[in-house]
Amino acid sequence: MVTKNNLQTEVYKINSDKEFINDNFLLMNKTAERLYHTFAKDLPIIDYHNHLSVKEIAENRKFDNITQIWLYGDHYKWRAMRTNGVDEKFCTGEASDWEKFLAWAETVPYTLRNPLYHWTHLELKNPFGISNKLLNKDTAKEIWKHCNKLLPEDNFSVKGLLKNFKVKVLCTTDDPLDSLEYHKKIRKDKFDIKVFPAFRPDKGMAVENLNLFSLWFNKLQELTNIQIDSFQKYIEAIRVRHDFFHQNGCRISDHGIEVPYAEDYTQQDIEKIFEKILLSKELMQDEILKFKSAMMYEFGVMDHEKNWVQQLHIGALRNNNTRMFNSLGPDTGYDSIGDFNIAISLVKFLDDLDKENKLAKTIIYNLNPKDNEVIATIMGSFQDGNIPGKIQFGSSWWFLDQKDGMEKQLNTLSNMGLISRFVGMLTDSRSFLSFSRHEYFRRILCNIIGEDVEKGFLPDSDELLAPLIKGVCYYNAEQYFEFDKA
């Protein structure tokens, strides 16, 4: 038996020589091993961006089987299964949970060199204690039974798992119209782990689809009891919801955008555009861009006023497959990296706010790796000397959330910024098992620094290196977000 953070599970091994996910996984030298095990491994987690179900946290859900906790909603796995020739019924369809698990197990051996192979076995080891029994069609039944036997235990409830992973703070992703009832319940229940909302107002500027926008707009009027007949009234109503989120612990916003919206516009332009919106008249493309630009500016101002952090997730090309979008809806694995030019508009967005001294702390994530150096150099133009790392080059995101992508992001940041001030990793996930990605990141970080030490590029000094490792893995985020004041 192995005992870890109160989880007692049987260890499965293929052989006794060497585990695949062993203590020194991804650590290629003795310095990397020392840095990870001494300074990174046992630090708590601040997961400041994810898509976890706050309802399941509040209700402390227990899962009936591993498919429910592992495969439901996981479009990373669905994409791999489809690529492997697996029928849709085993991804999102009517197949039983066992059949879906078996289909995934049969796919896993084909994911070699994809991060899914690493993540799968990291997640089987912690929390399930399955060490070096590789998942495939032959081991599927045994692993299925083992995991399902553990899931009814209290330590495998949602709250039990969060405690096991040493999560201290997490931020869900929430629409401004959300009641935040489950966040309130978690706070009322005095759960040890802080669960805060994040303000994601994408629907509030999605005027390219006026039918859907109107539904959101009407609910905003009802919630705020404001008759919205002008753009200024619209911003007033949005601000009411922004205030409501702040009162309920929110200290961070999030924006999923193709490009930074920063078109020139006048107040008269926006009022005329808003009049068309009120009349449900289709907008021209330049009007859509001006409206989004105005909204992003206003959101930025609100965030600055409350000392929030604004996150910009830039560059996704979404819902590429019309047939499957019509069948399954969004966020089901049919998105990709976009190929947009962002430099000029990003500079203008940041500069428009900075000129008025209204630029909030900002994290910028890119989905296209061609933009790494662009973002890393732009952010240096807007550091103000008052807040360490005020403008952040965000952790490698989505399709870049893998070993190669992490290394490139860390190296670019090191070359063109200060890696010592980086706020570190997040899961961006819908799964309660995905916190192993923090371990994955920490191992990669320690290996990069360890290799530099071994090659003589950095001094072999724990006094110098420990603050860097500890800061990036935990303490920088603690200082930057100031969740202790929420």
Q: Any descriptors?
A:
2 domains, single chain, alpha/beta, globular, four-stranded parallel β-sheet, 19 helices, 486 residues
Description:
With 486 residues, the protein is of the alpha/beta class. The chain folds into 2 domains: 2-22 and 63-157, uronate isomerase, domain 2, chain A; 160-485, Metal-dependent hydrolases (TIM Barrel). It has 19 helices and 11 strands. The chain has helices at residues 30-40, 54-58, 66-70, 75-83, 97-107, 115-125, 140-150, 158-164, 181-188, 210-224, 231-247, 267-278, 285-305, 322-328, 343-355, 372-380, 403-416, 436-454, 462-481, and strands at residues 2-4, 7-9, 45-47, 167-171, 194-196, 252-257, 309-314, 316-317, 336-337, 361-366, 391-393. The strands form 4 sheets. Strands 6-7-10-11 form a 4-stranded parallel β-sheet, with helices on one face. The longest helix is centred in the middle third of the chain and has 21 residues, at 285-305. The radius of gyration is 23 Å and the shape is globular.
Quick rundown:
By secondary structure, this protein is α/β, with parallel strands linked by helices.
Q: In terms of topology, how is this protein built?
A:
Blueprint: E1 2-4, E2 7-9, H1 30-40, E3 45-47, H2 54-58, H3 66-70, H4 75-83, H5 97-107, H6 115-125, H7 140-150, H8 158-164, E4 167-171, H9 181-188, E5 194-196, H10 210-224, H11 231-247, E6 252-257, H12 267-278, H13 285-305, E7 309-314, E8 316-317, H14 322-328, E9 336-337, H15 343-355, E10 361-366, H16 372-380, E11 391-393, H17 403-416, H18 436-454, H19 462-481
Parallel strand pairs: 3-4, 4-5, 6-7, 7-10, 10-11
Antiparallel strand pairs: 1-2, 8-9
Helix pairs in contact: 1-18, 1-19, 12-13, 16-17, 17-18
